[in-house]
Design goal:
By secondary structure, this protein is an alpha/beta fold. It contains 16 helices and eleven strands. The protein folds into two domains: 293 residues, Spore Coat Polysaccharide Biosynthesis Protein SpsA, Chain A (Alpha-Beta Complex); 134 residues, no CATH class. The longest helix has 22 residues. The N terminus is likely disordered.
């Protein structure tokens, strides 16, 4: 019965794709061809199937034989300081009751991936961008994918959707190919015995998407993140070429339970060593860090055990630190950008910023400074800040069908306004009027694809609302906040 249903879904998808292709020429969506040929998954079909076939039993065989950890209280939020250590307390209930079974399971999985031949399902020598989005996150992804193309980046993109329910034929078969991107249905490439499906959700999708992507060198990009510059050179420059894994920082200190370090047989690191991870973007080589990816997959597959242990109730619980911790547990190299992340948003009453987005630094410039012993994270006077390189636009996410129009996109009088107005030095690090470009692409996507996304089917007036905001804010001669020539 399941196979019949599956064939029926696929036939409907093919029919819808054909109709969609006839309805709208993709040339109106993007001027000029960015398509560099099909990203055929045929050569990968067998290796992906073998990887899935071997991986699933290992994940299940080494499932911890105990209940997931419970919390009493939580670790809270502690701003990162390279000088003053944050508390490293254990907020897990009765760790003695689960340390041994989790340690046995962790040891067993690490030994298994070291000693078992596990297929490497990627095409050697390739580079590309991987992301995951579905439902309400898909419009934002398309907007930010177009922003990526505006930088001149021609790297191919693979978008993983969770299952066929999240697969949107017109977007996957018409829109994405025009942007040198393609959809991959994760539930088709990662299956259990007899093609059984796994209920992977949200944060769990990231590690599995990277593992099953076709690229050797991967830039991960969350759906609500975008680059200010073409990121292609990041994959051929230090620190990536010297380490194989590059991450950016969050605002916060680690809240990892000391129990985790015991289970994974690591020494506890001081919280002054590095910030926690902001995993909206990171770089990873599957050639050098395949074991790291597999161990991160293990942590994310058993999320009910490891997410809580790593975050201990702090906001942002999820996959964010699983890659760095996996690399550390396996003794593999990595580079964590030291330059602090900064808020973009409106001025706050306390003199800070009401955050709407996060600006992250150029990792190449940061690496050059730290190799000279100039650590701005400890003393900002030692050097000029690296240029801003990418933005995590977390609130708003620039989806006209969601909460795009709120006080964060209004001025002090409650009228349409910019989301990013503070602080001046941060805005100048953008290098150009990035918010204007975001709104321009938001308007283009909304008005071109207003009825294309499944999550917009019941929405009305989206193009009209975005256009009204654009006209009020950006068609005025006073919309240029600052000059960006001295970035």
């Amino acid at each position: 019965m399941w196979n019949i249903g599956k064939r029926s879904i696929r036939m409907k998808i093919m029919a819808r794709c054909l109709v969609a292709a006839i309805i709208l020429s993709t040339s109106i969506f993007w001027k000029g061809s960015l398509h560099s040929g099909p990203l055929s998954s045929t050569p990968l079909r067998d290796t992906r199937a073998q990887l899935s076939h071997h991986l699933y039993p290992l994940l299940e065989e080494h499932r911890p034989q105990c209940s997931p950890p419970a919390l009493h209280g939580n670790a809270g939020l502690h701003r990162f300081s390279p000088i003053i250590s944050a508390p490293q307390k254990n907020y897990l209930v009765d760790p003695e009751g689960f340390v041994e079974p989790m340690q046995v399971a962790h040891d067993g999985f690490v030994q298994a991936i070291r000693n078992t031949r596990i297929e490497r399902a990627y095409i050697r020598g390739t580079k590309g961008i991987v992301s995951s989005a579905g439902g309400k996150y898909l419009p934002t992804f398309i907007i930010f994918l177009r922003l990526l193309r505006r930088t001149g980046a021609r790297l191919p993109v693979e978008l993983f959707v969770k299952d066929w329910i999240e697969y949107e034929p017109y977007i996957c078969e018409v829109v994405l190919p025009s942007l040198n991107a393609k959809c991959i249905v994760l539930s088709e490439v990662f299956t259990g015995p007899n093609e059984g499906k796994h209920d992977l959700e949200h944060f769990q999708l990231k590690a599995f998407s990277i593992l099953f992507s076709s690229f050797q060198d991967v830039i991960w990009m969350d759906a609500d993140c975008f680059f200010l510059y073409d990121p292609t050179d990041l994959l051929t420059s230090k620190p990536f070429t010297s380490t194989g894994l590059v991450t950016w920082p969050d605002f916060w200190s680690y809240t990892v339970s000391p129990t985790y370090y015991n289970i994974s047989r690591q020494a506890i690191i001081a919280t002054t060593t590095r910030q926690s991870t902001e995993a909206g973007m990171f770089l990873i080589s599957k050639k050098t860090h395949y074991m790291t990816i597999l161990l991160s997959v293990y942590y994310n597959y058993h999320a009910s055990y490891y997410y809580r242990m790593i975050s201990q109730g702090a906001p942002g619980e999820g996959d964010k630190d699983t890659f760095i911790l996996a690399a550390s547990a396996l003794g593999e190299d990595f580079y964590t950008v030291s330059e602090k992340v900064v808020d973009l948003g409106h001025p706050a009453p306390d003199g800070g910023v009401l955050g709407a987005a996060m600006l992250h630094a150029d990792p190449i410039e940061d690496y050059e400074l730290t190799r000279q012993g100039r650590w701005r994270v400890r003393d900002e006077s030692v050097a000029k800040a690296p240029r801003g390189y990418w933005v995590h636009a977390h609130s708003p996410k620039f989806n006209a069908g969601e909460d795009l129009f709120s006080r964060k996109t209004q001025n002090e009088d409650g009228q349409p306004g910019r989301a990013y107005t503070s602080k001046e030095d941060t805005l100048k690090r953008l290098g150009f009027d990035a918010e204007r470009v975001i709104w321009e692409e938001t308007k283009t996507v909304t008005c071109t694809l207003e009825h294309a996304f499944d999550s917009w089917k019941t929405k009305v007036g989206l193009c009209e609302s975005v256009t009204k905001h654009w006209d009020a804010v950006f068609e005025s001669p006073s919309t240029q906040l600052y000059t960006f020539t001295d970035a």
